[in-house]
Amino acid sequence: MTHPRPRPPRGNSPRARVLAVALAGVLAPLTLTVPAAHAATAAAPYDFNGDGRADLAIGAPDATVGGRSKAGAVSVVYGSSTGPKTATRALITQNTAGLPGTAEAGDAFGSAVASADLDKDGYADLLVGAPGEDVDGDTNGGTVVVVWGSRSGLSGSRTVVDYWKEETDRYGQALAVGDLDGDGDLDVVIGSTGSSALNFVNGPVTRSGPFQGGSGAGFPAPYSPSYGVTSVSAGRISPAWSTSLVVHGRQSRTGAAVTHLVTDPSLGNYTDWWQRLPAGTVSAIGDIDKDGYADIAVGDPAEPAADPAGAKGGKVTVVYGGPGGEDTSRAPLVLGQDTPGVPGAAETGDAFGSSVFLGDVDGDGFADLAIGAPGEDLGAGSVTLLRGAASGLTTRGAVSYTQNTAGVPGTAEKGDRFGARVLLADHSGDRRAELTVAGPGENAGDGAVWSLRGASAGPTTAGALSFGPSATGVSTAGTPRYGSVLND
């Protein structure tokens, strides 16, 4: 392998390195498992068995596996005509047959997940990060594996290469997938700590054969290499670029959140043209107003005392997209629980904006926004749902859910952290997203997941489903905090 000279950096650009594969045989396209003339249509993310329904991946990175504390596990609950169905499920750990490695204490397998049909065989594949994995004597070097989809679900796996292992730690603490260079192949985005905090592995990623090269970059101040890239979202903001990234990190010393939009990751000098976004720790990408440009919701649950960009009780900022990335002609929409029309009231510690997700709950084509506030009412937690419309996100008809909402199973209790993770995805195949909510503090840290069926009027509590780790084979030893991660 060779390291061709990267484009010279300009200004305060981060150091970007590109790894290319030089062998002609390696560069030749790999044969798919079906003839090209009858190639399968690529599956949507998280449709692991190709039935047209999104499946549910639930991370429990603190789960005990084989007696090993915090080794980590991922449960996959397959979709059905009635939504997620726990009777059809898979448990994935590093002790699962066919997966590389062995479950060890502190591996934190399941700290991040992502999905795409990497090999374009008609079945989505699952990427799982284990940032606590010790690799070749490197404590917390981290690793990422891909588990392959098939007609019968997930089976078989492969470790994703780390080209920059000497410059990364906690490899796999953040994951995303997208066609970063516009060549039609899906590339893997991996966040880590260290001097190369944002790493790309070029597609296609296949079940066997060599990887196709990659690149890595260390972000300059104010990003701290000790925190690295803590979260990353991928989506098509504008037709001008196949995939853009929203990158999250933290500042040195203060730990304050930092967020940027990388409009075109195929270029090497990110900070010459990246766009600074409102600070936050998480984000979601989707077209709220159906104008052909995706919008970005950035969640910042921090209090002002902890982060100058924070707000009492937390906040979410919606940045509208346009041809050049952020649409600077429209002011960002800042939302908190004191915003008129938003249920509740902003109180210290609510952590409103700890999780955000954009999806279409009523099938009208406008992306709606789910917001988690796991600190609400002494950590009992709540979730707020706001609707998309042609004019943008609206608070009209906003609704809030807790475990005390009629029809939602359970009872709101201190420390449940209901809303620590939220998800809007169509598990039933009716083109309306179910609302899935995780409460990793439920039952003294066992954790639990709730699913509310999508409907024309929005998520309904009629027939709401709730289940904990035992229902999907995860051990309740220790505090697994089931639901700490959901479909990303």
TrEMBL record:
Keywords: Glycoprotein, Hydrolase, Repeat, Signal. Residues 465-488 are annotated as: Disordered. Residues 1-39 form the signal peptide. The keyword Coiled coil does not apply. It comes from Streptomyces corchorusii. GO terms for molecular function: hydrolase activity. It comes from the Bacteria. SUPFAM superfamilies: Integrin alpha N-terminal domain. This is Integrin-like protein. GO terms for cellular component: integrin complex. PANTHER family: GLYCOSYLPHOSPHATIDYLINOSITOL PHOSPHOLIPASE D (PTHR23221), PHOSPHATIDYLINOSITOL-GLYCAN-SPECIFIC PHOSPHOLIPASE D (PTHR23221:SF7). One of its GO terms (biological process) is cell adhesion. InterPro entries: FG-GAP, Int_alpha_beta-p, Integrin_alpha, Integrin_alpha_N.
